[in-house]
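A note from the maintainers: we've had questions about how concatenated examples are separated. There is no special marker in the raw files; a new sequence line simply starts the next protein. For clarity in this README we add a label.
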Amino acid sequence: MKRKRCEMEEAAKEKKITEIGSAIEELSVLSIAKTTIVTTETEATSNIINLPLKPLLSFCTLIIQVLDKIGPTMAVLRQDINQNIQRLEEMWESDPIMYSNLVEIMRKEANEGSSKKPKSCSRATLWLTRAMDFTLALLQRLVKDMSQNMEQAVEESYNLTIKPWHGWISCAAFKVALKLVPNNNTFINVLAGKDESHQMVQDDIRSLVSLLIPLVSQLHSILVRFFC
C-alpha cells in the first residue's frame, strides 16, 4: 500500500493532475467497484454496502494530500487519518482475500465483540468517517462560496464534525493552529493545476462533493450496522 501511494503521487505529477483531480479519479473507481451485498435475512432490509478496502484507503490517502493544502492546522487530523489507514492496512495484509472489503472486517469484529476496543479496525473506521465528515463539510462550504473566509470555514466545519469528539487538549491545539490557515486565494491557488482558473477548481470541488456524499452516507450506514 505504501508503494502504491508513491506510485499514485508520481503518476499524478506526470499527468499534472491536481490532488482534487486524483481524489475524484480514485473515488470514481471506488464507486464502480462497490456492490450491494445481502448475507443474512436480518440484513436483508439494511442494504449493506460492500466497500472494497484498498480503493477506500487509497482515496483516504488522497484526501490527506488535499487537507495538507490547509497547512499545519491539519497536522493532528492528518496524523490521525494516517494511523487509522495503517490499522486497516495491517488487517488487509493479514489476509487480503478475507479482508478485501470493509464490511467483512467490521462484521468480524462485531461478532468477536471487539469493535469498540481502542485499537480495533471498527474504531479506525469511525475516525476515518469523522475525517470524511469534516472534509465534506469544508468542501461544501467552499462550493457554496469560494470567497468566504477560510479560517471561518475550517473552524465551522471542525466544530460541526470533529470537535464534539475531541478532548479539550486537541480542541485547544486546533484553536491555536487555526491562525495558520491560509487565506482564500492562497488555498485555491495551491489546489489549482497549471492554468486552472478558480472556476475550474470550484467545478472540481463540486464533482468531488457529489461523489463524497454517498460514500460518507454508506460509511455511516456500515457503522450503524456493525458499531453503534
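[label: protein 2]
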Amino acid sequence: MRIVCKDVTAETLYDVLHDTSYRRKWDTNMIDTYDIGRLTANADVGYYSWKCPSPLKNRDFVTMRSWLPLGNDYLIINYSVKHPQHPPKKDYVRAVSLLTGYLIQSNGASCSTLYYLTQMDPKGSLPKWVVNRVSQFVAPKAMRRIYKASLKYPDWKRKHNPNLKPWMFPEQNALPCLSVSELTLQRADSLENIDESGLSEEKTHHSEDEET
C-alpha cells in the first residue's frame, strides 16, 4: 500500500511509527505494545497485540525490528522471532510476520510518501470474508490513521518529552541488551492452528473505530 502525506515530513512519519507512547493515542486496534530489549543501536525486539472482531480471537506478535535512515528517506522492517520469556499467551493467537516493512520517502520540505508491505500469517483457518475485509478496508484505513496521527504529532511531541527519540539517538535507549542467541526465528508451522473458518460475518461484532 502507499499513501501520500501532504504537510507531513518524512522525519515526522518516521517518529510516529517508532513512538510507542504516541501509538496509544492513535492506534485504536492495539491492545498492548512494549519493547522487550535492544540488539544493536538500530535493532530491537518488541511485543504487539491487536483486537480482532468478536468472536475471532485477538492476535499478537513478537518481532525483531530494525531501522535505517537513508539520507532523507527512512526504512523500518520486522519479522517474527521467539523469545523464551514471551511465549504464546492463552487468550491470543500468536501470528507471524514473515516480513513487514515501511519505506518513507521524502517529497520535499513538507510532503512524504509512506509505503507499507507485509507478508504475514495470522494463523488460524480464517474465513475468506475476514481476509477480504482486512485487505480491502482495515489496512487502508490504518494507513489513513497513520497520516492523520502524523499531522498532530509535532504538537503532541512538544508537550511530551520533546527531546526523547531513542530511535534517532541510541544513547537515550535504556532497554536491556539482548543477545541474538536468545532468539530463534518464529516459524508459522510450529504454532497452534486455530480453526475459525466457520464464523459468519453476520455474527461478528466489528470495532467501532474501523474508521474515521
